[in-house]
Design brief:
The strands form four sheets. Strands 4-5-7-11-10-9-8 form a seven-stranded mixed beta sheet, with helices on both faces. The protein has a five-stranded antiparallel beta sheet with strand order 16-15-14-13-17, with no helix packed on it. It has three domains: 61 residues, Winged helix-like DNA-binding domain superfamily/Winged helix DNA-binding domain (Arc Repressor Mutant, subunit A, Orthogonal Bundle), CATH 1.10.10.10; 199 residues, Bira Bifunctional Protein, Domain 2 (BirA Bifunctional Protein, domain 2, 2-Layer Sandwich), CATH 3.30.930; 43 residues, SH3 type barrels, CATH 2.30.30. Helix content is 30%, strand content 31%. It is of the alpha+beta class.
């Protein structure tokens, strides 16, 4: 249950996150915005500090410390509203953002909902792998969409989501089918999509997205070396990553609705790290080995094997016979 104090504290955090490029956010301005005294503002700032958000007091106001990197659900909601997305519900901790988003989808939540957390206690990746990032290191979120498509056409969604996240992260991001994102040979993002359907087709799709921003998570049975997107030379803020990813995903979903999967598939091909290289793909209880030859119009991996070409709708690339860099 959210109290009035919680709501005001979130407003203070949103103002600090949105105004971090300023020298400071005026204490008087915050008081007027919240309709409270400056002493009350100071109490809300102290509450944020106790919650682990580093806030510096400066003359006449406050600013986030240089090493502070919180995500504000309120500020993110405002930032992505123009793309038709939101609200963004962000919490300090949850079991699994995918579980939360799936529950919301089944309860009738509208498309565009984003559920995120600073840490997950039961996060998971594909094939049931655990996913444990330290608090504040990663963007851990799930996005609810409700595309009006047949189930057979939804196979392209993992590719579409991967392309959208790569768009948001910028140049130098490669993709390992279906949706592992790699920079410089290191995996920086994993994606887990879940789908619900009814007699009319797809009812909802939840895209779980985990981006290593500052640190490297503990991942059971990792196939690729982990890495992070933020470096000393090119620092990234988690809040900005959230807003950028959600906005780019909205654009790719709109594009899919308007013109089909062609542009997303072309963008995937430009980032495909497997095309033309030897791969081993685990499908159920057996392996398929051969040369990757891109994906087809439904996002299925094409592998040329000694027995002929095979088209794989599901599976996991367990070996790549070349350097991912």
């Amino acid at each position: 249950m959210t109290t009035d104090a919680d709501a005001r504290r979130e407003q203070v955090l949103a103002a600090l996150v949105s105004g971090r490029d300023q020298a400071s956010v005026s204490g008087q301005e915050l008081a007027e915005r919240l309709g409270c005294s400056r002493a009350a503002v100071h109490r809300h700032v102290d509450a944020l500090r106790r919650a682990g958000v580093a806030v510096d007091g400066v003359r006449d106001g406050y600013r986030l410390a240089d090493d502070a990197d919180p995500v504000s659900g309120l500020a993110a909601t405002e930032a992505v509203a123009g793309a038709g997305m939101g609200p963004v519900r962000w919490s300090a901790s949850t079991g699994s953002t995918n579980d939360d988003a799936v529950a919301a989808a089944r309860a009738g939540a509208p498309a565009g909902l984003v559920v995120g957390a600073d840490v997950q206690t039961a996060g998971r990746g594909r094939r049931g792998r655990t996913w444990a990032a330290r608090p504040g290191d990663a963007v851990l979120m799930s996005v609810l969409t409700r595309p009006r498509v047949d189930v057979a056409d939804a196979g392209v969604v993992p590719i579409l989501v991967a392309v959208a996240v790569a768009d948001a992260l910028g140049d130098g991001v490669g993709v390992i089918w279906p949706n592992d994102l790699v920079i410089g040979g290191r995996k920086v993002c994993g994606i887990l999509c879940e789908l619900g359907a009814d007699e009319s087709g797809v009812a909802w799709i939840v895209a779980g997205i985990g981006v290593n921003v500052h640190g490297v998570p503990a991942v059971a049975d990792a196939r690729w070396r982990p890495g992070a997107v933020s470096t000393d030379a090119a620092p990234r803020r988690r809040h900005d990553v959230v807003c950028d990813v959600v906005t780019h995903l909205a654009r790719r979903m709109d594009e899919w609705r308007d013109v089909g999967p062609g542009p997303a598939l072309a963008a995937f091909a430009a980032r495909d790290l497997l095309d033309g290289h030897g791969v081993t793909v685990t499908v159920g209880d057996h392996d398929v080995a051969g040369t990757a030859a891109g994906v087809d119009g439904q996002g299925r991996l094409v592998v040329h094997t000694p027995a002929g070409p095979q088209t794989l709708a599901a599976g996991e690339v367990t070996r790549v016979h070349h350097d991912l860099t």
